Structure prediction request, 244 residues.
Amino acid sequence: MKNTLALFVLSTRNINRQHIQLILVIVSLAMLVLGTGAPLEGGGVGIR
Amino acid sequence: MILLFALVAGLLVGLGWARWRKIAYRAPELQQLWLIFIGFLPQLILIYLPDNRTLPSDRLAAASLLVSQILLLAFALIDSRVTGMAILICGVVLNMVVMTTNGGFMPVSPQTAGSLVQEDVLLELHPGDRIGPKDILLHPQDTRFEWLADRFLLPGWLPYQAAFSLGDVFIAFGVFWLFASSSNPEKIQNRGAQIC
Prediction:
């Protein structure tokens, strides 16, 4: 248990500001392409 | 989904290239990211989240799409100096042109739609009906800027099928290039976040 906690703390220390910034950019650009693109996908086609 | 593949592919290429050259990968430096969240919100609320019982009217959905795309285009223009963004902007403009001139939705022909949906489902649809979150079924002869519509199909042997437009191709290539080129040290001097 103690080792697991230590491992968790160690791994969170490796998540720095730059990693968070990269994740934020990825999420933002994913929304950008989803918002501006308009492909019609098979399978999940919702019919109105 | 097809556009997210391009994003992930660009990211993987960028990370791989950076690792191979033993240099740091940097996230693209973008300004005014909040504009994307604000711009995507109308689509999230009126296009993606509603189920069949709470669908907004076509006019409201088309208006929200237009407002959303204008805001997203504004963001892209602010960051147009970022590598790949100019290509992405071309795609956004192409999609906006064809959607705006066809009632606010992306036109798709019955023939193209027939490759994606079952025949019995397609028979229930009429020209002008919405199909998918952003598309509208239109005959090619009734479509303005038909060459910009969702008219391209992925190869039939792929398990995932989708129809996409020329604008989507530009958007996919732009976002791919944006992430893939972020590991190029010549283009990112003193810019962006460094990821080791």
